Amino acid sequence: MGSKQEATVVGHKAYFEAKLNERRSYLVEKGIDPQGIAKDTILKNLKAKVKKMNLRVEALAKITKRTEELAKIKADRLAAPKKQKAEKEKAPEASSEEDKEKKKKKKKKEAEAPAE
After folding, report:
1. Is 93 a domain residue?
2. What is the tally of structural domains in the chain?
3. Range of the domain at 68
4. Does 28 fall in a domain?
């Protein structure tokens, strides 16, 4: 499993880039033509590793960004319930007053019905 710490991944990337540059300079000193350098398997392998590290850095950046967004949303939610609780408390009171009025009307209707 890959590392999830950005500093570690950046360190790996720097390591592979250094190895890539060393290999290129070695091949140039050896006098190999550019087509031969392009075909070098070790060089290809190092390029692939650098590319892989770039993808990991991008993925970690996305994860960090998403984590920050979620933290912000959570902070907003924690701040918001104070207002929502006040609204919720008012709503049941209004409904309880309506219930009381309905009960009174029912009692009046019941009281009137036997009298008729």
Report:
1. no
2. 1
3. 6-79
4. yes
Domain-located, residue 113: no
> What would the 3-class secondary structure string for the chain be?
CCCCCHHHHHHHHHHHHHHHHHHHHHHHHHCCCHHHHHHCHHHHHHHHHHHHHHHHHHHHHHHHHHHHHHHHHHHHHHHCHHHHHHHHHHHHHHHHHHHHHHHHHHHHHHHHHHHC
pLDDT in tens, the chain (116 residues): 567 788 999 999 999 999 999 999 999 999 999 999 999 999 999 999 999 999 999 999 999 999 999 999 999 988 886 665 556 666 555 567 777 777 777 777 777 765 54
Let me know if residue 84 belongs to a domain.
Answer: no
pTM, to two decimals: 0.60
